[in-house]
Amino acid sequence: MKLFYYRAKEGNFGDDLNGWLWEELAPGRWSDEADTLFCGIGTIIGNHMPPASRIRIFSSGLGYRPVPEDFSTDRWDVVALRGPLTARVLNRPERAIADGALLLSTLDRLRPLPEAERGRPIFIPHYEAMDEGDWAAACATADVKLVDPRQCAHQVIDEIRRSRLVIADSMHAAIIADTLRVPWVPVSSSGRINSFKWLDWSLSLNLPYEPRILPTATLDTAYRDGVRRLVGEHYRLAHPDAEGALAHQRQMTRREQRPWWMSVRPKLKYHLLALPRRLPQPPAVARRIATWNRRQHSRIASALEQLKSEAGFLSDDRIFANRVDQLSVEFDKLVRSG
After folding, report:
1. DSSP state, 212?
2. C-alpha distances in Å from residue 130, one per residue of 134, 189, 296, 331
3. Residue spans of the chain under pLDDT 70
4. C-alpha 171, offset from chain centre
5. Boundaries of each Polysaccharide pyruvyl transferase domain copy (predicted)?
6. CA angle 155, 159, 165 (to 5 degrees)
7. CA gap 196, 13 in Å, rounded
């Protein structure tokens, strides 16, 4: 089979672990020349995929794109889905299991560490948020370790394993923390944080999704959030719940199925994002913006200071073990079938 997953130009550990996890679990079963795609961890159903006679879905999810037009054909082999929301949209409720990253728990070298061997809390932003604020300064003030999600996946996973609490803006920071039995607290730094995705996974483990909204990092971030809302790329719900997330997903799907909108949106987004750079910025305005941004960093530090003292969430051991068993059985069957 040929691995297919999202590859962020900057790097994103949650997606990047596809590059080695499946080979470690099933050595020698993967080839770039194969005509069957294997889609594992990530929100990739509906993404543009390379030509293939067969597409096998193992724990992938929906989140941004409409369901592929040929999804009801035999070309798609749905083995497992990330959670019940993706399963409801695809009308495959029997295939809802959990995110494939849970199989990290089957690797001996990633066994949970004793509490005494765990260090201070860490904060892992969404990979696209890393350049939008002075996270390092805020974390230093709060005595929370900043972990860059664009680093090597092995390094980020090790940081998670060695912490006593993970403050997770990145969804896979929470998923892998739970997998390694490290408590986690969900936060949201902007409208790019996708409530549908988070609920899809959290419901798979009977967990609540109650994110804490972080203060906006910079004025530029606030403006970009406004642009996202205008062009239909604002994915955070004010009060996330399953029915609201499904309704929002249907609304996004309808919008994305309008050819005129899909033609106009990239240009509109580009010009709106470029607008602040084209406007004159007198020194007095620049100073006011800098002052506002510093205050926001102080507010973020205060929020992190409070969050690091929380107990955090952790899925029930029995539910977690059951999902790992289900994923393991389905993965073994898939590998044996070739």
Report:
1. E
2. 8, 10, 15, 34
3. none
4. 4
5. 96-190
6. 155
7. 20
Q: CA-to-CA distance for 99 and 87, rounded, in angstroms?
A: 13
C-beta separation of 127 from 215 below 8 A: no
- The alpha-helical segments, DSSP class H, found in the chain are 13-16, 18-25, 84-90, 135-142, 153-161, 171-179, 195-204, 219-231, 242-256, 259-278, 283-307, 317-337
141: left (phi over 0), alpha (psi -120 to 50) or beta: alpha
Domain extents for the chain? 2-106+318-337, 113-315
Tell me the whole-structure pTM to 2 decimals: 0.95
Other beta carbons within 10 angstroms of residue 67's beta carbon come to 16
238-283: per-residue pLDDT in tens?
Answer: 999 999 999 999 998 888 888 998 899 999 999 999 999 898 889 9
State the CB neighbour count (10 A cutoff) for residue 274: 9
Beta bridge partners of 60: 81
The single residue listed with the structure tokens 């790992």 is 324
Is the distance from CB of 2 to CB of 38 less than 8 angstroms? Answer: yes
d(CA 217, CA 208): 26
Residues 6+ apart with CB under 8 A from 245: 85, 195, 196, 199, 200, 237
> Which residue, 77, 87, 86, 81, is CA-closest to 36?
77
